[in-house]
Amino acid sequence: MYVIIVYDIKVERVNKVKSFLRQHLFWIQNSVFEGEVSRSEFQKIKNGLLDIIDEEEDSIIIYPFEFFSEVERTVLGVEKSPIDEIL
Amino acid sequence: MYVIIVYDIKVERVNKVKSFLRQHLFWIQNSVFEGEVSRSEFQKIKNGLLDIIDEEEDSIIIYPFEFFSEVERTVLGVEKSPIDEIL
């Protein structure tokens, strides 16, 4: 499956979230990660994030898709991490 | 169609981008907007953003989908703007 994750995390925890996500996904933009993951890895990511974040202060939105091909992307301005070249 | 827009904009232009996007879409999280738009509105949004941003410094990623139903969403932590209640 393919996931897009966007987060809004308090500064004291944001680096922990970033380095955790970097182990599983590609950094795409300031607070956006994307990547292909297995269902069990997806579960691991969700549990790992819940261990790090404060659920009353932080917010993470996960958009899961069955296939990478379902996700189109238009970039305006700087393409910080050109995912199409990575995949 | 349905769009998710995530942005990373230099501080001097970010409020302009936010208020522009607020005219067309729903604010979902720190730097994420979503919403149902017509194709012509989608074009208008892209052109409007290009008028505001500095293409060498700012970055906007647009994920377009044919239908809202293609987009699932899992929220961890605070659900800042519960889109399902809005739509």
Automatic annotation (TrEMBL), chains A, B:
<dbReference type="InterPro" id="IPR021127">
    <property type="entry name" value="CRISPR_associated_Cas2"/>
</dbReference>
<comment type="subunit">
    <text>Homodimer, forms a heterotetramer with a Cas1 homodimer.</text>
</comment>
<keyword id="KW-0460">Magnesium</keyword>
<dbReference type="GO" id="GO:0004521">
    <property type="term" value="F:RNA endonuclease activity"/>
</dbReference>
<protein>
    <recommendedName>
        <fullName>CRISPR-associated endoribonuclease Cas2</fullName>
        <ecNumber>3.1.-.-</ecNumber>
    </recommendedName>
</protein>
<comment type="similarity">
    <text>Belongs to the CRISPR-associated endoribonuclease Cas2 protein family.</text>
</comment>
<keyword id="KW-0255">Endonuclease</keyword>
<dbReference type="Pfam" id="PF09827">
    <property type="entry name" value="CRISPR_Cas2"/>
</dbReference>
<dbReference type="GO" id="GO:0046872">
    <property type="term" value="F:metal ion binding"/>
</dbReference>
<dbReference type="GO" id="GO:0051607">
    <property type="term" value="P:defense response to virus"/>
</dbReference>
<comment type="function">
    <text>CRISPR (clustered regularly interspaced short palindromic repeat), is an adaptive immune system that provides protection against mobile genetic elements (viruses, transposable elements and conjugative plasmids). CRISPR clusters contain sequences complementary to antecedent mobile elements and target invading nucleic acids. CRISPR clusters are transcribed and processed into CRISPR RNA (crRNA). Functions as a ssRNA-specific endoribonuclease. Involved in the integration of spacer DNA into the CRISPR cassette.</text>
</comment>
<feature type="binding site">
    <location>
        <position position="8"/>
    </location>
    <ligand>
        <name>Mg(2+)</name>
    </ligand>
</feature>
<keyword id="KW-0479">Metal-binding</keyword>
<keyword id="KW-0378">Hydrolase</keyword>
<keyword id="KW-0540">Nuclease</keyword>
<dbReference type="InterPro" id="IPR019199">
    <property type="entry name" value="Virulence_VapD/CRISPR_Cas2"/>
</dbReference>
<keyword id="KW-0051">Antiviral defense</keyword>
<dbReference type="GO" id="GO:0043571">
    <property type="term" value="P:maintenance of CRISPR repeat elements"/>
</dbReference>
<dbReference type="GO" id="GO:0016787">
    <property type="term" value="F:hydrolase activity"/>
</dbReference>
